[in-house]
Structure formats: C-alpha cells, structure tokens
Design brief:
Distance between the termini: 45 Å
Shape: globular
Strand content: 5-15%
Low-confidence stretches: none
Helix content: 40-55%
CATH superfamily of the domain at 56-198: Glycogen Phosphorylase B
Structural class: alpha/beta
CATH class of the domain at 56-198: Alpha Beta
Strand order of the largest sheet: 3-4-5
Mean pLDDT: 94
Largest sheet: 3 strands, parallel
Length: about 210
C-alpha cells in the first residue's frame, strides 16, 4: 500500500490526476495480518483502494482480472502464485518479485524476457521456526514496486498490446494442464531410470 501511495503521488505530480484504483482481493480485517483499512486511511489513499473481501465464483474473478491493467504479487516466499498465472491467462501483465515459483512466471525462461516487470530481490532475511529451522525471505523496496507500476502505466499502447498477447501465450504454452501432466510424468520416469547414476552423496560435518 505504501508503494501504491508512491504511484498515486507520481500520477498527480506528472499526469495531473490520481485516477487509479488498487483492487485488493483479501479480507482487510484478517487476524493474521494488519488492518488494511486503517493503513489505507493513514496513507490517505482510502479513496483509491477497493477491498474485494468476499469469496466469489471463477467468472467473477475473471471480471476482476479483465478490468485490471496489471497484477502485483510481492510475496517474500511464494511457492507458485496462482493469481498471477490466472491474470496472465486473461492477458494481464504481472509485477512480481523473482522468488519461488513467481520467477518462472514473470521471467520467460525461453528467452529471458519479462511478462510485465520482474523485480530483483533487494533484501534477503534468514528466518525460521521450530518446525522450519531456516528459510530465506525475499524483499523488494516500495520505490522499486512503484517504479514497476509507472513503467507499465507509461508503456506505449502498441507495446502494451504486444505484451498482453505475449503473457497469455506464455501462460497457455508453459502452464497448460497437458504440459504440466506430461512434464510431471517425464520427470518421474527419468528419476526412476537414472537415479543411480545421478545420485549425489552428501556428507554431514559436525562442528
């Protein structure tokens, strides 16, 4: 939300308006997170934020995707990232941190191009718990996120049209059901046939 404020301030300063709305499909009063309503009021952006807090059907979600100019996922440890992939299927570019499964979505592994804006990890924190002894969390600055929004907002319309078609083609090509099933089957078959020669032994050193 702090990144959204920076984006709105840029719009007002450089384009003379604040005509933009951040759609957040989440419960602003979720007990596991901050009070997003209070946060939006504190940042003075409450008029430019809409909370979609109810569970809705797939066709309604598709409407949200289709009215969006881009989708943002700045998770610090994302296993896959389903909303971003669904957006790409609806021809919506994405802004995402290069962490976990998001990397394969926002970066086209075939040529290294981006399906929107790929954000480099700027700060990495080593955290953990009793169940998970250690794990890295990947963070990016609010300014970098805001700059990514500005980049897509100011993109030439013809280039944006090409990007929209590209992200949909990539999603359908690389994440189709058939390809996912085939890749899973091929990898399991390869492991069962070659695990002996590919097996690498690890040594444990106690200090």
């Amino acid at each position: 939300m702090a990144s959204w404020k920076l984006f709105l301030d840029y719009l007002e300063e450089n384009h003379g308006h604040r005509k933009a709305t951040l759609i957040m499909h989440t419960d602003p009063f979720d007990g596991e997170g901050p009070n997003l309503t209070v946060a939006s009021e504190m940042l003075n952006i409450h008029d430019n934020v809409f909370f979609s807090s109810e569970r809705i059907e797939f066709d309604k979600m598709n409407i949200l995707y289709n009215i969006s100019d881009f989708c943002i996922n700045i998770s610090y440890a994302e296993g896959f990232g389903l909303p971003t992939l669904e957006c790409m299927q609806a021809e919506v570019p994405i802004i995402a941190v290069k962490t976990g499964g998001l990397t394969r979505q926002v970066v086209d592994h075939r040529d290294g191009s981006e399906n929107g804006v790929a954000l480099d990890v700027e700060v990495q924190s080593l955290v953990g718990s009793q169940q998970v002894p250690y794990i890295y969390e990947d963070y990016v600055s609010c300014r970098s996120i805001s700059n990514a929004m500005i980049k897509l907002y100011e993109m030439d319309p013809a280039e944006m049209k090409k990007l929209k078609k590209k992200v949909r083609e990539y999603a359908l090509s690389e994440f189709s059901y058939q390809k996912t099933v085939d890749d899973w089957d091929n990898h399991l078959e390869d492991i069962s046939k070659t695990w002996r020669e590919k097996y690498e032994r690890w040594s444990c050193v106690t200090f």
